[in-house]
Amino acid sequence: DAKTTQPNSMESNEEEPVHLPCNHSTISGTDYIHWYRQLPSQGPEYVIHGLTSNVNNRMASLAIAEDRKSSTLILHRATLRDAAVYYCILRATSGTYKYIFGTGTRLKVLA
Amino acid sequence: DTGVSQDPRHKITKRGQNVTFRCDPISEHNRLYWYRQTLGQGPEFLTYFQNEAQLEKSRLLSDRFSAERPKGSFSTLEIQRTEQGDSAMYLCASSARQGPSYEQYFGPGTRLTVT
């Protein structure tokens, strides 16, 4: 399974945009990029996913590099409730579609 | 709300005891996953069910662990002869469809502490 690399932690000020990077240099042509977040004492929560094109939803935007070796999750206006661990995961197109989580990025939002 | 539910939310047990956790997936989700998460780490895959069939088990799932999903609805995860290394959060997730673009919905987890 292809691996991802994320910074251990990041800080952001409230109401400012946050760009969370993820490197996945060994991604295969058919791997999807999924992002989840985990708030304290909760299970992971789906945020967004993409394959090649940039994606937007009500929670965030996902920018995928042209070579697909990296991606960036964008929170347009961070709030205190966005403080969580954010996981970038590559998902293969066969098998059981289980997730292989890394250690993620712990986002701290400053008031 | 009919999200994934797990019971109990917390369990404290003594080493050597058996414990059983229950997961109720979202209704009509026929795919169910169990993960384990230790402090400071991301969740690790344990096992996967499609309907009642257990189709994949991780090497992490030792002989002391057993999971079932009778009738393809709720699932149970049993740990026999618990060890202190079993202390972790046990997460259940379900999915409606199979495919790389379909997300999994996670429950709140069961936190196990083995003393």
Task: Please provide a written account of the structure.
The complex is a heterodimer of chains A (111) and B (115). Chain A has 111 residues and is an all-beta fold. Helices cover 0% and strands 45% of the residues of chain A. Chain A is built from no helices and nine strands. In chain A, the strands form two sheets. A five-stranded mixed β-sheet of chain A has the order 1-9-8-3-4, with no helix packed on it. The N and C termini of chain A lie far apart (38 Å). Chain B is mainly β and 115 residues long. In chain B, strands 2, 4, 5, 6, 9, 10 and 11 form a seven-stranded mixed β-sheet that branches. In chain B, strand 5 (44-50) and strand 6 (53-57) form a beta hairpin. Chain A binds chain B through residues 30-32, 34, 41-46, 49, 51, 85, 87, 91-93, 95-104, and chain B through 4, 31, 33, 35, 40-45, 48, 50, 55-56, 91, 93, 95, 98-109.
Q: What general outline of chain B do the C-alpha atoms trace?
A: globular
Order of helices and strands of chain B: EEEEEEEEEEE
Unreliable segments of 5+ consecutive residues of chain A: none
Q: What spatial form of chain A do the alpha-carbon principal axes imply?
A: globular
Placed side by side, the strands forming the largest sheet of chain A appear as 1-9-8-3-4
Largest interface: A-B, 27 and 29 residues
Helix content, binned percent of chain B: under 10%
Radius of gyration of chain B, taken over Cα atoms and rounded to an integer in Å: 13 Å
- Number of helices, where a helix is a run of at least 4 consecutive DSSP H or I residues of chain A: 0
Distance between the termini of chain A: 38 Å
What is the tally of beta strands of chain B? 11
Mean pLDDT of chain B: 93
